[in-house]
Amino acid sequence: MAVIPDHYHDLLTAKAAFANLATVMKDGSPQVTPVWFDYADGKIRVNTARGRVKARTLKPGARVALAILDPQNPYRYLQVRGRVVSEAEHGAAAHIDALAKKYLGQDKYPFAQPGEVRVMYEIEPTSASGNG
Fold first, then answer.
1. Rounded Cα gap, residues 74 and 44, in angstroms
2. Which parts of the chain fold into alpha helices (H)?
3. Does domain 6-131 have CATH number 2.30.110.10?
4. 41 burial via Cβ count (<10 Å: 0-12, 13-18, 19+)
């Protein structure tokens, strides 16, 4: 597991920074999506709903990359490459609510759709570098 440089921990824990998550489609083409995330126990956690493109590309073992821009200075960023190490429905609803608190200041995720099944993914960093 790669160590995130201390200089960038604020982007992972103290700021509501968005991550641009890059995954690889079945045909080998890249796919990029802006995502909410958090950082726990050395892993970056993201959340989506079953049926979305991310849910099809974020499988355990999949390689991913994230670019996380500082919301106060877009010239300062952290790039993280890693692998998906877990996928779980259990706890994913509580996780998206926690992300809604971080990004929207709301206790409950307001965009849930009827019958939606949430999934949380943990990404273990394998390399990290930044600028600024």
1. 20
2. 9-13, 53-57, 92-104
3. yes
4. exposed
Extract the tokens encoding 90: 């259990």
Task: Burial-class residue 104 by CB neighbours within 10 Å (0-12, 13-18, 19+).
Answer: middle
CA distance 120 to 113: 17
Q: Which single residue is written with the structure tokens 């050395």?
A: 42
pTM (2 d.p.): 0.94
Structure-block tokens of residue 22? 């890059």
Helices (H) and strands (E) in the chain, counts: 3, 7
DSSP secondary structure of 72-100: TEEEEEEEEEEEEEEEESTTHHHHHHHHH
Task: Return per-residue pLDDT of the chain as tens, 132 residues.
Answer: 678 999 999 999 999 999 999 999 999 999 999 999 999 999 999 999 999 999 999 999 999 999 999 999 989 999 999 999 999 999 999 999 999 999 999 999 999 999 999 999 999 999 999 998
Please state the domain extents for the chain.
6-131
